[in-house]
Amino acid sequence: MKQVLVVDDEAAIRFAFEQFLRDEGYEALLAENSDEALKLLQDTIPDLVFLDYRLPGMDGIHVLEKIRRQQPGLPVIFMTAFGAMEVAIKAMQLGAYEYLTKPLDLDQVRLLIKRVAVGKKAAEETPAGSSAAAAADSHLPLEPLVGKGTAMQEVFKMIGLLSTQDVTALISGESGVGKELVARAIHDHSPRRREPFVVVNCAAVPETLLEAELFGYEKGAFTGAEQRKPGKFELASGGTIFLDEIAELIPALQVKLLRVLQEKTFERLGGCGPLPADARILAATNRDLAAEMQSGLFRKDLFYRLHVIHLHIPPLRERREDIPILVDHFIRKGNREMGRQVRGVSKEAMSKMTAHAWPGNVRELENLIKRAMVLSREDILPEHLFEIRDAGGQNRASAHQEALAESVKRYFSLESGNEGTSASIFQEASSILEKTLISEALNKTRQNQQQAARLLGMNRSTLRKKIRDYTL
């Protein structure tokens, strides 16, 4: 690899690239706008292009479209200081080799150049496909995913790649991080975007009804089935079905879903024959599905069918740099929806929010901003954020933990001094604590296992197994 084209309207960046590339042993071709870049590409074919988004006249996305039509095998690394979801998705849909946000990390740039050099032949053989047409035709209104940090930029890139490949994908992340928004973004940027996007929350539908909900039923299939009803797979035909909380599927339904993935067909309850399953499957979980598989609670063959592509969304506490931009987004959204004119957030309030752990993630932050906007006049102040636990709340939680710790200490002191004690104090204490917590949760929810599992933060299948083990 010899020549590298850099397209950027900032002279300082072009100069820095020129010096860097020269030191690395490459010839730098420089262009400050789209016209210069496209004219240069008519006369020569560089080995690699670094393309900025913000350019005078035609922006980088349109330049990338033209490059893809004229030289589909040319590797293009897209650069921008504005890490917006739409820009990242479109760049990846159009076949960008990589997407970088400024300021650039030269070590990362060096590794990318070497990677392109090693894999240049394979890259040149990659067809452009129809992704450009799909991107140009995508005008559907979306609830945007917001984030400028590295973690969310990786999520945006994966959305762009998945929107051009009709494969099953597993989306993981804690509750409230935006798994459904990611699934919707994949669907709405894909060739299936004109067809339905159907959501099924596997944890919210009772086990006895979930099979009928997914696959539908014929008239007379069971008591109360007075007419044929299509299931979610039928309603999602041609589009996407999003199976949220997939870890909650009981084993019998895991088998049926595996058959859908393998054979691309399903049967209604009481039906006489198979029906085509023409829906892309996106699944989501807030659990460690690999661990569930290892423990025997989730089928291994189904796990690998769903795990074709894995997209993990990090919790908000691991991307605190996104909190200010998320707050700004939710304030603008709230002003539109509630007819308010809240200007922003005070420095003290923002410090309080960036220091918070956000166990409920982005959903918790959005709800907090909504409530704060109701109380505020012009700016959101610290006193409007009473939902974030203060020191008193933390002290109360700490006191409860200390009380539990004292009880454990007393139990250990008594048992360790008992000559007839069993070999494993740890196992006995753990069993007592676990059995007590499960029993209390069942009592509180009036023996509703689904609600008890949610209250304990436990998989429903795990809860059922422990109820049997403890004969509760």
Note the main attributes of this structure.
single chain, 472 residues, alpha/beta, Rossmann fold, Helicase, Ruva Protein, domain 3, 4 domains, five-stranded parallel β-sheet, 21 helices, 13% strand, globular
Describe the model.
The chain is built from 21 helices and 16 strands. A five-stranded parallel β-sheet has the order 2-1-3-4-5, with helices on both faces. The chain has a five-stranded parallel β-sheet with strand order 7-10-13-6-14. Strands 8-9 form a two-stranded antiparallel sheet. It has helices at 11-24, 34-43, 60-70, 85-93, 106-118, 120-124, 131-136, 150-162, 179-188, 207-215, 232-235, 251-263, 289-294, 300-306, 323-338, 347-355, 361-375, 391-416, 425-444, 449-456, 460-469, and strands at 3-7, 27-31, 48-52, 76-80, 98-101, 169-172, 197-201, 216-217, 229-230, 240-244, 265-266, 275-276, 280-285, 309-312, 344-345, 379-380. With 472 residues, the protein is an alpha/beta fold. It has four domains: 3-136, 3-Layer(aba) Sandwich (Rossmann fold); 166-312, Rossmann fold; 316-384, Helicase, Ruva Protein, domain 3; 424-472, Homeodomain-like (Arc Repressor Mutant, subunit A). Residues 121-141 and 390-396 have low confidence and may be disordered. Strand 11 and strand 12 form a beta hairpin.
